[in-house]
Amino acid sequence: xxxxxxxxxxxxxxxxxxxxxxxxxxxxxxxxxxxxxxxxxxxxxxxxxxxxxxxxxxxxxxxxxxxxxxxxxxxxxxxxxxxxxxxxxxxxxxxxxxxxxxxxxxxxxxxxxxxxxxxxxxxxxxxxxxxxxxxxxxxxxxxxxxxxxxxxxxxxxxxxxxxxxxxxxxxxxxxxxxxxxxxxxxxxxxxxxxxxxxxxxxxxxxxxxxxxxxxxxxxxxxxxxxxxxxxxxxxxxxxxxxxxxxxxxxxxxxxxxxxxxxxxxxxxxxxxxxxxxxxxxxxxxxxxxxxxxxxxxxxxxxxxxxxxxxxxxxxxxxxxxxxxxxxxxxxxxxxxxxxxxxxxxxxxxxxxxxxxxxxxxxxxxxxxxx
Amino acid sequence: xxxxxxxxxxxxxxxxxxxxxxxxxxxxxxxxxxxxxxxxxxxxxxxxxxxxxxxxxxxxxxxxxxxxxxxxxxxxxxxxxxxxxxxxxxxxxxxxxxxxxxxxxxxxxxxxxxxxxxxxxxxxxxxxxxxxxxxxxxxxxxxxxxxxxxxxxxxxxxxxxxxxxxxxxxxxxxxxxxxxxxxxxxxxxxxxxxxxxxxxxxxxxxxxxxxxxxxxxxxxxxxxxxxxxxxxxxxxxxxxxxxxxxxxxxxxxxxxxxxxxxxxxxxxxxxxxxxxxxxxxxxxxxxxxxxxxxxxxxxxxxxxxxxxxxxxxxxxxxxxxxxxxxxxxxxxxxxxxxxxxx
Lengths: 370, 342
Known about the structure:
The complex is a heterodimer.
Chain A: H1 10-23, E1 30-36, H2 37-45, E2 56-63, H3 65-68, H4 71-82, E3 87-91, H5 105-110, E4 115-118, H6 121-130, E5 136-142, H7 147-160, E6 165-171, H8 174-188, E7 195-198, H9 201-206, H10 212-217, E8 222-224, H11 229-244, E9 250-252, H12 264-273, E10 274-276, E11 279-282, E12 286-289, E13 293-295, H13 304-307, H14 323-327, H15 351-354, H16 359-367
Parallel strand pairs in A: 1-2, 1-7, 3-4, 3-5, 5-6, 7-8, 8-9
Antiparallel strand pairs in A: 10-13, 11-12
Helix pairs in contact in A: 1-11, 7-12
Chain B: H1 21-35, H2 38-41, E1 55-63, E2 69-70, E3 73-74, H3 75-88, E4 93-104, H4 109-126, E5 129-138, E6 146-156, E7 172-175, H5 181-187, H6 207-216, E8 222-224, H7 230-242, E9 245-249, H8 257-266, E10 280-283, H9 285-296, E11 305-311, E12 318-321, E13 327-329
Parallel strand pairs in B: 4-5, 9-12
Antiparallel strand pairs in B: 1-6, 2-3, 4-6, 7-10, 7-11, 8-10, 9-11, 12-13
């Protein structure tokens, strides 16, 4: 496949890996976090950690939208489907995530709720048009990448004057999450993470300039990377170089897709339809200010939180769960008492085990091989 | 309604399952004609046949698929191929099938006829006779058009002993061709996901390929068809049963460009995608080349490849040496493969 095979070429990989081995100082520790779940997926799918020197380690960040969504929001989605009997539409890997009472949208579907898996929010609009007598809710989740398509259907729904369509908005923002990870270490005077592999698709929307202030404030180099294995390996090399040169710049490895300013049209659609929440709860990271979006009052007719009455959730995270420390890179999944004992991919207790991209789930599959 | 079966316009009605003349008519006009053979023609409630001395194998499989017709096949052919292949994976020659239909009220008879004729053709191609059967009708809304359960029996040659228990460290792992065609062809037809894929399901009976393989390598250790869950599920199953690990070589695994591309944008992994005309075989390393040549000499094994080997591993992991140069575990999937968000 053109533009794919080149970025998965084993010979090029061996050459980049050779340079990482040559340039990383043996006496120094390099701990880098890949923010995106997509990058975590790439690391494991292509076995990239095998190619790195022992002192270059990857920490898996919180950039998996399924992982960081708190159970209370999943409970609310289940309530929409079960109690309010809407047609609830969402993306595939959201459906299996358990809420507070070990139930999930897939289980609710098995018990008769109308839950549908979509590839695009536009499909939810179509379902609403085809079922005028039913309420249709799109369970919107994800970072800046999946937000513009949600904004587009909100605009379209208003244009069509749909009376039976709304969005349950759970879109979250990347820069506040990076702050949430780096700030506690900075305050404690620790250095846990020496560099960040910056988001790829998120940066297509936001632009690379969005991270400049973070890199400066936390004196942490950020290299925005694509999702092919050669992209990630190359980004790691660039981070090693920045560390060696004591630089903390934002570099754009993914220049074939990411610009400094991002996608202005997408940004404008989001700005027309959504606004910052004062605070939002992140599974594993807790409540963070200005870290998520809600639907603007002008679009209240299409806001599921305004249209439907939702009960407060009694969801509580397991106290023994070490996900908050794992997400910040302060602990490894194996430091957690629950890991691989009560908490497994089939029975996830914490955020990092929920999706295959979560740090613990990836460690569970891969760590077993070590 | 008239008791003449009008295949062009009529639908399945409750009366077709009622045991009366309408049901008799449907059986005579459709099933008996299509599947015609002496055992079926006898018209008894069971088929009676001679059994040669030796071992027989028996297997059963229920077929539910949406859509019922897809590029490269339909539920009828699939119901034959699936069960024939399960018989064959023991190394046996398939002989007879039974077929039980659950029909939904309102299902067009012309579609039913198309399915039944396709089953008959698939059975002829596989050299098996459909010798007994059953039809039931459920009310509209209580089925999904057609469900078909087929049971198969076959005769096992004396010298053949295929079983996961015989898979041992050192064995080579072979497949007979491109993986993932069936799953991607089906996905391309799902209503919420139409995309243009120039792809056909690989649904086919493997009886003749297996006969060729058994002739060359009667000491084959194990064969299995990687259907649901794809190659990944099948290999994990066998590694658990045989108490071994496996090492695969990504570059050696045949996957079509179209399947790779579709999996790429759907967020799926071809190793987990279903096949309906593929087998994975295990044999002693010294027999592997001869077996590979024999497979490649057969049209259903033209793209066969040795994709890896069995290793000692008390953790019974299936590992993949990636084309990129690293290694990863090919784990069990929890539940259905669901596409990733981003």
